Amino acid sequence: MADLVRYELKDRVAVLTIDNPPVNALAPAVWEQIDQAVARGVADAGADAMVLIGAGTTFIAGADIKIFDALKTREDSMSRSAGTHALLKRVEDAGKPLVAAIHGNALGGGLEVAQACHFRVASKDAKVGQPEVMLGIIPGAGGTQRLLRLCGAKMALAMCTDGKPVAAPKALAAGIIDQIVEGDLLTGAIAFATMKAAARQIRKTRDLQIKPEDVSGGMATCEAVRVALGKTARGAHAPFVAVDAIQAALTHSFDEGSIRERELFAGCVVSIESKALRHMFFAEREVAKVPDIPKDTPTREITRAAVVGAGTMGGGIAMNYANAGIPVLLKEVDQAALDRGMATIRKNYEVTMSKGKMTAEQLQRTLALITPQITYDGFDRVDIVTEAVFENMDLKKATFKELGAVTRPDCILASNSSTLDIDQFAQASGRPPQVLGHHYFSPANVMKLLEMVRGRETSKEVIATSLKLSKKLNKVGVVVGNCFGFVANRMLAYYMREAYLLLEEGASVPQIDKVLTDFGLPVGPYGMQDIAGIDVGARIRQYLASIGKTRAEGPQSAIPDRLFAMGRYGQKTGAGWYKYAAPGSRDRTPDPVIEQMADEEAAKRGVKRRPVADEEILARIMTALANEGARVLEEHYATRASDIDVIYCYGFGYPRLRGGPMFYAETVGLATVLSRVKEYRARFGDYWEPAPLLEKLVAANKSSFEG
Ligand code: 3H9
After folding, report:
1. Residue of the nearest CA to atom 51 in ligand 1?
2. Based on the structure, what is the number of domains in the chain?
3. What residues contact residue 53 under an 8 Å CB cut-off, 6+ apart?
4. Which residue range forms the structural domain that includes residue 25?
5. Active-site residue numbers?
6. 649 inside domain
7. Ligand 1 atom 33: the closest Cα is on which residue?
8. pLDDT per residue as tens digits for the range 679-703
9. What is the pLDDT of residues 83-115, one digit of tens each?
10. Which of 85, 165, 398, 402 is the most exposed place for a label (fewest CB within 10 A)?
């Protein structure tokens, strides 16, 4: 077995070093070897005390998340948890002082191991946390029972329900750690352990008394947290379970509370919520790996940027650069448009400041990084330009032609197009290897997704540089292929098609939106269109009509174009799918005009309107997404199904608790999804055509898109 926990003696202290790169995750063998190393230290006559420390950049980042997939039943999970409980009890029963020396992170099972040590010391910049809820589970190695005894109910509840790590100084003040070590951590930890050995001091966390304020007020604190979670943890289950486990610590002995923790942990591990969140954890990390772009692909530094177009998207993109400390030129065609754009940017920052998230000085400093202008002055000095002009092929091609002339040959030229063919811009620029899509999502300064569209000739260096840049801009960059609408909007066209058809068949706008928000999306399809602008979609349809295409197969609803013709562009004009109190207001009410239009359009298509059940709305919309997602995957416009999930979670606020549209389809069952497509084809027409990949997977009895 590999040496995952090294053992050596230093100054009569046994130093146990966990060495399981990159983050010392607790794979089963690491647990075992910690157990063995502690036993060896206890038996070693040359050791008076022990220090447990991590090799590399961190203490322990928690249990190895991959192993949870092997826990198929509650019983499996119960027995895994029981095993770690027993193991940590043995560790805690060690007859010599055992000190955890924490640097980097002590998270999840990592903090639970540290809690079972008799003392904890940490470097100043270390962090400790119980982030299990982010994976849909709760601490399962005694964390809910020991943490409460160390820091009290209020803080234990906060840490176990929001999952956020706590910095060492705060952990010290709360009693989670005993000392902060300035200078070399191991040296400090050995000194601390030696001192405890001399004083013959051993302190078992499990024997600490519950704090007096928790004996009297702990239950009320739990109740208050449950009420607060009702608002902040909408749809999630694990945070509430964490409260139950901590409540058990308040009302039971350590051993009884631990049994309750195990039962609750086991229920969480096998939940869909946890499977979805674990899927997202790895999906978010995989997405940065592009098969033919190795890690060592050369990249360039982006120190200066420019944006063309100061509309809603262009302004938001410029803010992203300024927020990252990168100076950015913002160009518009005329002064009035530029002034409007800058006023919006300033207003956005003022809102941030009013929420206390920015000081006046920071606002001025950030704004000063944006240089508004109506010329191409200085474009020969920037490293990247993002084009954010209207979604119009001719206009964009003309802009790329100009950019090819005014920028340096090595400058990256990115387009914020949400649908159009990047290769045509690349040709217009005269240097295709430098061109790619940088598709931001509205509002561009808020939404985390950056879809990076690879053209036919985009160079690897440009992609690698963009991936690095996306991190600097605090975005999740996903590399996709160049098809109409790329991945996000190509699939969205099918989502919207079903929403339109369901409306014409008899569902209402508020009903459809509510089904999707109840599912966990922040906004339904109609509310989303009113925010994004009905004019945007209409212009895309006009362009497509000019080249004889439609966005999605199947009947095309006339209602969106009728709304466009009426000047009802959504929130900004005070009317769209809903009526608004005023232009720009979010205060909306349903509009009977829409029902009337739905009646008219249904009559034209010979559709008899009927009550539509919520279940049908959800099933049709999600089936449409998954079926088109399967095509995208098979045509290699997305590298993996999990990339599509990341796109939907970060671009459209698809609930992470559901794992994204492709993972959701897997939880529904690929065979069920396929049978729904076939059922809809029989009911509605051949435009419901099963994706070949879906048919292949089901025929091969596969349960996942990855085969
Ligand atoms: C738990 O502990 C349950 C217990 O209560 C009960 C037990 C009975 N496992 O994020 P990075 C991988 S639940 C497996 O890019 P960073 C990660 O996939 C756990 N793998 O680095 C990546 O792999 P690759 C509670 C893990 O510096 C590589 O390490 N703990 C784990 O940006 C680097 O990761 C957590 O939830 C893991 N636990 O951030 C903490 N952690 O290179 C989860 C990481 O192949 N981890 N990997 O793509 C984190 O939050 C971050 O990784 C951390 C470092 C902040 C530690």
Report:
1. 61
2. 3
3. 15, 16, 17, 18, 59, 100, 101, 103, 185, 186, 189
4. 5-270
5. 112, 132
6. no
7. 22
8. 999 999 999 999 999 999 999 999 9
9. 999 999 999 999 999 999 999 999 999 999 999
10. 398
